[in-house]
Amino acid sequence: VGLPLACAWLRAGAKVIGVAKTNKKVSIINKGENPLIDEPSLTPIIRKYVMEKKFKATTNGEEAAKQAHVILIAVPTHVKWNKTGKPIDLSILVNVLRIVAKGLSKGKLAIIESTVPPGTTLNLAKPLLEKTSGLKAEKDFGLAYSPERIMASHALQDIEENYPKIVGAVGPRSLKAAKALYEVIAKKGVITLSSTTAAEFEKVAEGIYRDVNIALANELAKLAKLLNVDFEEVRRAANSQPYCHLHKPGIGVGGSCIPVYPYFALHVALKYNLDLTLTRIARMINETMPEYVANIAIKALEKAKIDIEKAKIGILGLAFRGNISDTRLTPVTDLVQHLESYGVRNIVIHDPYAQDNPTKYPLVRDVEKVVLSSDLIIIATDHNMYAKELPKLLSNTSRKLIIVDGRNVLQIRKVSRAKNVTYIRI
What we know:
Blueprint: H1 2-11, E1 16-19, H2 23-30, H3 43-51, E2 55-58, H4 61-67, E3 70-73, E4 78-79, E5 88-89, H5 91-103, E6 109-112, H6 120-133, E7 142-145, H7 155-162, E8 165-169, H8 172-182, E9 190-192, H9 196-226, H10 231-238, H11 261-271, H12 277-287, H13 289-303, E10 312-316, H14 332-341, E11 346-350, E12 363-364, H15 367-373, E13 376-379, H16 384-396, E14 401-405, H17 412-415, E15 421-425
Parallel strand pairs: 1-2, 3-6, 6-7, 8-9, 10-11, 10-13, 11-12, 13-14, 14-15
Antiparallel strand pairs: 4-5, 7-8
Helix pairs in contact: 1-7, 4-5, 5-6, 9-11, 9-12, 13-14
């Protein structure tokens, strides 16, 4: 989030200091290079403004805060997955707020862009900044909340062109300043909300809406399979009605956003003894999809009389979404664990973009080798290359192959031409 945001401000004419956690990333940026392979549009911008000495990176957040007039905070917030539950982890944000507070002085404006549980700016950030700095928000410095609204691979376009900016603040002076600031870079304008809590809730609500709709698609796809109906056929027909917007089903929801934000709302709701039933059940449905897909794969192997322990499984895609490299919270991690629980031992993963591999299995780049050497393929990510290259590869295979399409990537009419292929859509 931070680097695309920096580039937007650079293009608007501002001087920017970027604060990164590691010396490695600082070094890359200060050489005029782009550390984000999923955001190639940033490369010429970084190069240009580093050369012009309008952009530099540092690990010294306190010094950067002292030099800046406006301080934008865009750091990760997490949910800890463990046996005791899923507690909210705002430790990175808290540490950064302490650093920022040391650099605060009168007249500055601090804006949080990280997605947080509703109430965080008012109940955590404001008192922490005030206590550490000795200043008062709204009186001495401005404090606002404006959630990032970007998607990997076109983050800069999202910031500048695609969506209005949402802004809430702790008071009218802060709101006026933040609104005027974002109007410089957001071509779709700025939507001001009545409070920071409302702005925080807006972002969480966006994520929950998507999670619930994905869960609905997953649940309906399960019923369609029992009815021996192609859910994709049903989905397309249903969506011809303008009030219906059925999503595609999939093997699970990954990334650092949609699987996390529902827990922010659930966490806050518990304080009021409110059970967000739909939000909770939607999360449960989506989190169990890797197990559901693994079960489909195992049943297909058993039907084909292929020994589970000797079966060669190829997983196509490790990134949580198509055409990007990001593997954070990828459902493939759970998928391989469930396959292992059934006795699967031979797994190879292909991904054309992923750099990090959270599994213990080999990550390879040769998709043809994976397809032609596997007994069963699970399509786990909707990379464009799979829709383009797989039909030809499948038509050339001489061995029997089972395809479990976990992202509805392939068209049935194209796959049906392959004589030795058993095709299963989730």
